[in-house]
Specification:
Blueprint: H1 4-19, H2 53-70, E1 74-77, H3 84-92, E2 97-102, H4 105-117, E3 135-140, E4 163-169, H5 178-188, E5 189-198, H6 207-216
Parallel strand pairs: 1-2, 1-4, 2-3, 4-5
Helix pairs in contact: 2-3, 5-6
């Protein structure tokens, strides 16, 4: 638990940043006193109600990728939960479209809150430095059901390969999630698209199989790195 002086310092620093005109990411998380892990029904998975360390790391990574990698692109955060990385991209990386996908009803409601909290959906409050705020959408995405995957903006019937960048934070923590995750990533990414994934290196059942299964369906591991100290 953070000490009171740590909390005060964080508030002071955030206030200073706001006064300097920085684009602050604002988030709400909800209590997980009744948390249920993935047990065969993604709709019952309430882990997305809280903010996990991997999502903060991925948000930092996403901001560092910046407009050079994400500018003008279609970005989808799978298992978005509170939406930390996806909304960080929307605020700082000038994507054309950001899709925040989850399935649990409470998580989706909280996503709507966080999207509004950061000014998206309210035109008067959505202007960003580049003058063209991205479209931020919330979608109930079921990894194993292609009919729930993002469609092209023009409403094309073909749902596959419409996403340029997929973001994922600590999504595979049981072996049963490997195949659905691999199917969603490989099915949603356009040819040449990219997936950025952050998670702990241990304590996640099935994580070791993700890379080999991705490679089997044509998604190549380009780079694996440890979290830079500055992210911590």
């Amino acid at each position: 638990p953070a000490r009171a002086d740590d909390d005060a310092r964080a508030v002071e620093e955030a206030t200073a940043l706001a006064d300097a005109g920085a684009l602050l990411l604002r988030m709400r998380e909800l209590p997980m006193s009744d948390a249920k892990l993935f047990d065969g029904s993604a709709m019952d998975d309430t882990t997305g109600l809280g903010i996990w360390a991997a999502s903060i790391v991925l948000a930092r990574w996403t901001v560092d990728l910046g407009t050079a990698r994400l500018g003008g692109r279609v970005v989808c955060e799978l298992g978005a939960g509170c939406g930390v990385p996806g909304l960080a991209a929307a605020l700082h990386c000038a994507p054309r479209r950001v899709i925040l996908g989850d399935l649990n009803a409470r998580a989706l409601d909280n996503l709507r809150h966080n999207v509004a909290l950061n000014g998206f959906g309210a035109p008067a409050e959505s202007a960003r430095a580049d003058g063209a705020p991205p479209t931020v959408e919330i979608m109930p995405i079921e990894w194993e059901d292609p009919s729930t995957w993002p469609r092209a903006v023009d409403g094309a019937d073909d749902v596959a390969a419409h996403v340029d960048v997929i973001l994922g934070a600590d999504l595979v923590y049981q072996a049963s999630a490997v195949e659905p995750f691999v199917r969603a990533v490989s099915g949603m990414l356009r040819p040449g698209g990219e997936c950025f994934y952050a998670s702990p290196e241990s304590g996640r059942d099935g994580l070791a199989e993700v890379v080999s299964r991705m490679e089997a369906v044509g998604v190549e591991l380009v780079r694996k790195v440890r979290v830079p100290d500055v992210y911590m």
